[in-house]
Amino acid sequence: MQHLEDQPQRTCIGCRKKGPRSELLRLVAEGNGSTVVVVDERRRMAGRGAWLHPSETCLALAIKRRAFGRALPGTTGTAAVERRITAGTQAVDTPVAAATTVQPESGSEN
After folding, report:
1. pLDDT at 4
2. Is 39 a residue whose pLDDT tops 50?
3. CA-CA distance, 61 to 37, in Å (whole number)?
4. Which of 69, 71, 74, 79 has a 20 to 30 A CA-CA distance from 95?
């Protein structure tokens, strides 16, 4: 097993702090001239990548600093990244609430 110190370090475009690659999301331009930024879940997509901690704080900082456009020139659409981070945060913070929105409460189907 690798120690965190042995892993490649990447810099978050939001907070500008370095961290192990495994703790950050890799972001890339969707391709074919698209301006959309997408999360590279498998970290294998072609092209230049940018790195971001999966937190709403780092996302807000990256948007405020206009870091997406600098890290991935020509990109403007960050909706996919925002959905991924907010969905991930909600799933971690409120797993019960997420489950109740999918499952009807007992007796409510009558």
Report:
1. 56
2. yes
3. 16
4. 79
28 touches 72 (CB < 8 A): yes
Reduce the secondary structure of 22-91 to three states and give it as a string: HHCEEEEECCCCCCEEEECCCCCCCCCEEEECCCHHHHHHHHHCCHHHHHCCCCCECHHHHHHHHHHHHH
Q: Which of 24, 59, 56, 62 is nearest to 40 (CA)?
A: 24
Contact 31, 46 (CB under 8 A): yes
Q: Work out the average pLDDT over 41-56.
A: 94
Reported as half-sphere exposure (CB side, CA atoms, 13 A), residue 63 has a value of 12
Q: What is the value of pTM for the model shown?
A: 0.74
51: tokens are 């790195």
Rounded Cα gap, residues 46 and 40, in angstroms? 10
